[in-house]
Amino acid sequence: MKNFNQWNEVKKGIYYFDFVFKADKKSVALLSQIKLFDCRRLDRKIGKINEEDFKKLKEKLFEIM
Question: Any idea where the domains of the chain sit in the sequence?
Answer without folding.
Answer: 10-33+47-64
